[in-house]
């Protein structure tokens, strides 16, 4: 699975909902606001001028509150919703220009989707649900069943093959949803608030399952969520969406350390920064001639883990090293502590 | 007469009616025109209804001429296959034995054949119409008012054109029964498909299902409980209509009821009526239990 997967390129994407979207697209492009469009013309602006590259083989998280257009956006990628203007390029093809038949082929071969409310087929067993995508592709059962059984096994549902969805808990149902999507062996995995309906503990569990699988599969995952913690835990790249427009795009650390505006800042305020910021970010360049500490930790390690290891090992300071073991800088406990405390909230809370 | 007009002008006071002569002419023109049209195409109509006649006769003869014990066993077998319930089978056995004992076996068999054929026909026609109705709002805008008319138009009224077109006999009766019994089949098929969870439909789309794969793999199976309710209703309505259809020459229990009305035979009327009720209950329990059994995946477990 080491072949490089293409990026998904979203270019100048607009979506207007209403009776005659085409009539208003030029006005919106010229700057007609969402409120005015709704009040004067009775149309709803779903997405405006989305430009986003979703890197192949990585997890991209699109984050936003309800009504931000994130579910609309993900449905454009497999053509469940057609845009009013713009294009989505994948592997040299524009998804938005595909015919019905091409789109069906694209959905069968290249994408798979996991849904918030699982959307399993209630009249099919776990095995049959997992087989669904392959059935649609008319893969013979003899060939498809071992594949399905393998994925059921991988998501931890061995022994439940002949259960019906109604007999399973929410977390187990979503494992079926995941197995169904993975059995398709598509490049792109679209996950629409896939874990949002699950209990917190099970959600974390499923996040781990996804990360483990991704470690090996390296699919192009597009993950939708309204939960910033989830976004930071999963996303190699995070895009924040608000009222149909992108507010900020970057890595988790970039967004937490440099929120682009007040909206994003308000979002990241409550985040556990020690789980996001890397040791390399906090490390300072040593003074010339300074004696370097003995201990060393990888630069990619998040502060929480560095702090835990340093206290465990009894170090007050340590070197931060890159993959080759070369020293990038030095870090000490007080610098870690300072970075972990959010400057904005720390000052405003007087207690 | 003018005194009851409260001093209003004639036009507002008395309803302006079409001239009686004009009405008479129009009526005569439509009636004769219709009759002539039917006469013109009588060969075509006969040819078209011949297979129905053959099928109906065949089934009726089978039901009537086979020794009762065999029919009895087969019927109970069908009930068992559908309901899988000893109670329903026992109830059906008891009802059929009583029916035979009071001398209504043959008439019941005729009615049974009639109801079977009309239900099969209503399902065979209603299901595709229901599917089309579910797929297009425009079709639904035409079909729904049509069904409203079919359901509210007194059945005696549409017996008239049926008789004009097809004459008197079993087949016209069959057609009248089908017209009467088909609306719930169409309505509930339409409703069942439209009520299928949108998320599941979206999932089917997201995996690249074709329309046909979606229909057979997702929509129809998930609409099945509602569709089965439609079948059940269709059977019940067919049983109700069989009595009225006896006015155009359908035999069986309905004919007995009609004679009982004409001659004020209280006991005969009720006996035949109860025989119909017994059949209805057997059909109802069997088809409902069958529908429920198809939904085994909905039972048990969480939620």
From TrEMBL, chain A:
Self-association state and partner proteins as the record states: The complex is probably composed of two ATP-binding proteins, two transmembrane proteins and a solute-binding protein. The complex is probably composed of two ATP-binding proteins (TmoW), two transmembrane proteins (TmoV) and a solute-binding protein (TmoX).
Residue ranges occupied by any CBS domain in the UniProt entry: 284-348
Organism: Phaeovulum vinaykumarii
NCBIfam families: proV (TIGR01186)
Lineage, uppermost ranks: Bacteria, Pseudomonadati, Pseudomonadota, Alphaproteobacteria, Rhodobacterales
Compartment(s): Cell inner membrane
Highest taxon of the lineage: Bacteria
One MF annotation (Gene Ontology) recorded for this entry: ATP binding
Membrane topology: Peripheral membrane protein
First-listed, main subcellular location of the protein, grouped into a coarse class: membrane
Keyword set includes Cell division: no
GO cellular component, one term: plasma membrane
The protein, known as: Quaternary amine transport ATP-binding protein
TrEMBL record, chain B:
Assigned GO CC terms: ATP-binding cassette (ABC) transporter complex
InterPro entries (UniProt xref): MetI-like, MetI-like_sf
Location in or out of the cell: Cell membrane
Membrane topology summary: Multi-pass membrane protein
Predominant place of localization: membrane
Gene3D superfamilies (alphabetical): MetI-like
CDD domains xref list: TM_PBP2 (cd06261)
GO terms, molecular function: amine transmembrane transporter activity; carnitine transmembrane transporter activity
Domain ABC transmembrane type-1, first and last residues per copy: 108-287
Keywords: Cell membrane, Membrane, Transmembrane, Transmembrane helix, Transport
Keyword Phosphoprotein applies: no
Gene Ontology BP term (one): choline transport
Regions that span the bilayer: 62-81, 88-104, 110-134, 155-182, 234-253, 265-283
PROSITE patterns, alphabetized: ABC_TM1
Family assignment from sequence similarity: Belongs to the binding-protein-dependent transport system permease family.
Protein name, UniProt field: Glycine betaine/proline transport system permease protein
Species, as recorded: Phaeovulum vinaykumarii
Source species taxonomy: Bacteria, Pseudomonadati, Pseudomonadota, Alphaproteobacteria, Rhodobacterales
């Amino acid at each position: 699975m080491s072949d490089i997967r293409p990026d998904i390129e979203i270019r100048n994407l607009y979506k207007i909902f209403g009776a005659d979207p085409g009539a208003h697209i030029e006005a919106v492009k010229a700057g007609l606001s969402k409120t005015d469009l709704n009040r004067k013309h009775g149309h709803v602006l779903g997405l405006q001028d989305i430009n986003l590259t979703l890197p192949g083989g990585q997890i991209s998280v699109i984050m936003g509150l309800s009504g931000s257009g994130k579910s609309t956006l993900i449905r454009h990628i497999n053509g469940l919703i057609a845009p009013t203007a713009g294009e989505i390029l994948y592997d040299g093809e524009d998804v938005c220009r595909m015919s019905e038949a091409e789109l069906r082929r694209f959905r069968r071969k290249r994408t798979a989707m996991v849904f918030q409310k699982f959307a399993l087929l209630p009249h099919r067993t776990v095995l049959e649900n997992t087989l669904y995508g392959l059935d649609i592709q008319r893969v013979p059962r003899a060939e498809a069943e071992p594949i399905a059984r393998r994925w059921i096994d991988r998501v931890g549902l061995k022994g439940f093959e002949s259960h019906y969805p109604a007999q399973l808990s929410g977390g187990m149902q979503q494992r079926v949803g995941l197995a169904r999507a993975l059995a398709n062996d598509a490049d792109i995995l679209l996950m629409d608030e896939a874990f949002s309906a699950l209990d917190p503990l099970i959600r974390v569990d499923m996040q781990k399952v996804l990360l483990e699988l991704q470690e090996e599969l390296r699919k192009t995952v597009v993950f939708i969520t309204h939960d910033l913690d989830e976004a930071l835990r999963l996303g190699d790249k995070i895009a924040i969406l608000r009222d149909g427009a992108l507010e900020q795009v970057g890595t988790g650390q970039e967004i937490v350390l440099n929120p682009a505006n007040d909206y994003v800042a308000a979002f990241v305020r409550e985040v556990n920064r020690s789980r996001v910021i890397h040791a390399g970010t906090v490390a300072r360049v040593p003074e010339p001639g300074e004696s370097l500490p003995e201990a060393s930790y990888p630069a990619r390690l998040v502060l929480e883990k560095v702090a835990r290891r340093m206290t465990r090992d009894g170090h007050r300071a340590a070197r931060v090293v890159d993959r080759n073991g070369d020293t990038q800088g030095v870090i000490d406990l007080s610098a870690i502590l300072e970075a972990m405390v959010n400057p904005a909230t720390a000052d405003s809370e007087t207690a | 007469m003018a005194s009851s007009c409260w001093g209003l002008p004639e036009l507002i006071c008395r309803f302006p009616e079409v001239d009686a002569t004009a009405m008479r002419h129009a009526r005569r023109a439509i009636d004769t025109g219709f009759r002539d049209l039917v006469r013109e195409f009588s060969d075509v109509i006969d040819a078209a209804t011949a297979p129905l006649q053959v099928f109906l006769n065949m089934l009726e003869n089978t039901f009537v001429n086979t020794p009762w014990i065999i029919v009895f066993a087969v019927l109970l077998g069908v009930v068992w296959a559908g309901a899988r319930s000893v109670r329903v089978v026992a109830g059906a056995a008891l009802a059929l034995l009583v029916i035979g004992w009071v001398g209504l076996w043959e008439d019941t068999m005729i009615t049974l054949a009639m109801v079977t054929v009309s239900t099969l026909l209503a399902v065979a026609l209603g299901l595709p119409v229901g599917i089309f109705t579910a797929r297009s709002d425009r079709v639904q805008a035409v079909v729904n008012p049509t069904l409203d008319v079919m359901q509210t138009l007194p059945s005696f009224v549409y017996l008239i054109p049926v008789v004009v077109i097809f004459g008197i006999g079993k087949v016209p009766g069959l057609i009248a029964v089908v017209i009467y019994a088909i609306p719930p089949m169409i309505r509930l098929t339409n409703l069942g498909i439209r009520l299928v969870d949108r998320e599941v439909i979206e999932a089917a789309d997201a995996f690249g299902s074709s329309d046909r794969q979606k229909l057979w793999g997702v929509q129809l199976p998930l609409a099945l409980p509602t569709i089965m309710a439609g079948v059940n209703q269709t059977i019940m309505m067919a049983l109700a209509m069989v009595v009225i259809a006896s006015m155009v020459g359908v035999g069986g229990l309905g004919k007995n009821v009609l004679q009982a009305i004409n001659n004020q035979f209280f006991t005969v009327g009720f006996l035949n009526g109860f025989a119909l009720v017994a059949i209805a209950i057997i059909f109802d329990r069997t088809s409902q239990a069958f529908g429920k059994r198809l939904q085994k995946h909905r039972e048990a477990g969480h939620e």
